[in-house]
Amino acid sequence: MPSDTARFTPRGPVDVDRPDDLDAFWNEALAYLERTAPAAAFVLDETMSGDGVDVFAVAYSSAGGVRVGAWYTRPEGAAPGADLPGILLIPGYISDPTVAKSWSLRGYAVLSVAPRGKVRARDQIDPGYPGLLVDGANDARSATYLGFYLDVVRGLDLLADRDEVDPTRIGVHGSSQGGGLAVATAALRPDLVRCISAGAPYLCGIMSSVRLTLTYPYQEIREYLHIHPEQRAALETAYSYLDVLNISERVACPAQVYIGLGDDVCPPETGFALVERLPHVEQFLTYQGCAHGAGLPWVNEEIDAFLERHLSPSPAAAREHDLIGGNA
Q1: Any idea where the domains of the chain sit in the sequence?
Q2: CA–CA dist 284, 69 (Å, integer)
Q3: pLDDT single digits (tens) 40-80
Q4: Which residues are part of the catalytic machinery?
Q5: Is 93 assigned a ligand-binding role in the annotation?
Q6: What confidence category does residue 326 fall into, taking pLDDT thresholds of 50, 70 and 90?
Q7: The architecture CATH gives domain 22-311
Q8: How does the average pLDDT of the chain come out, rounded?
């Protein structure tokens, strides 16, 4: 069961400076994305399809012409005009995208994205894990993570363009990296996202997290600065553009946020900071004694109910609860 937030004592503040030209930066980034046509290919995988679900291997072009991948699943034989609710799934930092057949058995069309650096998206850019967080990060415009954000936004656009998907009923879901980028995607495409479910959100209060935890991925920044201490000011400036807290106020849809109060990867203080900034938090779930799993497996029922409330899938077989989770 979720715990009482009053029992949590923050270990320190979560601060992030907001650049004066933040909105201009993101407008420029989205315009840069639009310069590359998606050239999307959805190829039916007959060996993985069946038992009520069609599975497609997806490839598309994103910012800078980088070719990335995804898996797309839908109820078997869904025709144009089916008006299926959609879910964009975003993987964790070291995780790769799932083939979300169990979600599609419930009536959802699901795009599970593999941004640059993930399996099936490593041909052109592969910063490694660890590595992604600090790759090119002494300037926000050269940071590999900027392209990573835009890869996810492009995936949302493709999902909304599918003939069988209702573009007014799309949710975004993920945990850890997926949680932070769910918020970022809704902030950058507020007109397309109906709801977000974000677990253990990463990339919130980035530099504060370096002070609050000693674990990866934030440890990458500490190690980088140990070697390049002269880069601290440049990193702090770059991350202020990429920090999800700074764009979270642009989110226009209902949000569900869930965290573990014992999380040593994404400090719970940053989850509280996010909830304070999000305009429409419908549900904030905290779990005493839970770490980066953020309440798994108990929180699954809450996630399912939240998405069903806002996306209204067709009645179908229950989704298999993810007892392991994809939070890393």
Answers
A1: 22-311
A2: 32
A3: 999 999 999 999 999 999 999 999 999 999 999 999 999 99
A4: 176, 263, 292
A5: yes
A6: low
A7: 3-Layer(aba) Sandwich (3.40)
A8: 93
